[in-house]
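User: I've been trying to design a sequence by hand for this structure and keep getting stuck. Would you show me what you'd pick, starting by listing the structure so we're on the same page?

Assistant: Good idea, let's start from the same input. This is the structure you sent:
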């Protein structure tokens, strides 16, 4: 099954670093016949939303987002983007990757229900491990969602007979 990874961080270097680490995670998962691909590396919310609008039939979306998506220290652009992604695709998995630990509570206030909240670290090995673990969890959640959806469809079919 294919999984579509989206990375959005206003710092292009950070976005590329996250994407590189996710590519390494993907190689590990491909050994289990799981195929995550990085579809988009963006530095702004509009690029992500344009991509999703143009690819409206995408399923199995996993978004890795920075909470602050511009230089403005009061910006919560990543939170707004996460809410919009969830509106477009309710089963999309949201993972925040940020240096702003203090903003984690806002994800609960807004009921975004992110899968994880990863603090950026200079230790690339720790970040790699955490990204891989979270990517595996996101894939497991999407598989569960798809399985439940199939069972629900079968039940509706049987009830219709």
């Amino acid at each position: 099954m294919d999984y579509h990874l989206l990375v959005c961080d206003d710092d292009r270097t950070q976005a590329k670093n996250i994407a590189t680490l996710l590519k390494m995670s993907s190689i590990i998962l491909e050994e289990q016949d799981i195929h995550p691909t990085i579809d988009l590396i963006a530095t702004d919310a509009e690029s992500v939303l344009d991509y999703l609008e143009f690819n409206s039939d995408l399923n199995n979306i996993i978004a890795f987002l920075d909470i602050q998506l511009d230089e403005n220290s009061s910006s919560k652009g990543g939170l707004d983007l996460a809410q919009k992604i969830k509106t477009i695709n309710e089963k999309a998995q949201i993972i925040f990757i940020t240096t702003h630990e203090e903003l984690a509570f806002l994800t609960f206030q807004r009921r975004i229900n992110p899968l994880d909240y990863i603090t950026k670290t200079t230790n690339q090995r720790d970040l790699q491990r955490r990204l891989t673990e979270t990517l595996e969890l996101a894939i497991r959640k999407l598989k569960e969602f798809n399985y439940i959806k199939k069972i629900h469809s079968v039940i509706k079919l049987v009830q219709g007979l």
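That's my pick for every position. To get oriented when you compare it with your attempt: The mean pLDDT is 86. The first strand starts at residue 2 and ends at 8.
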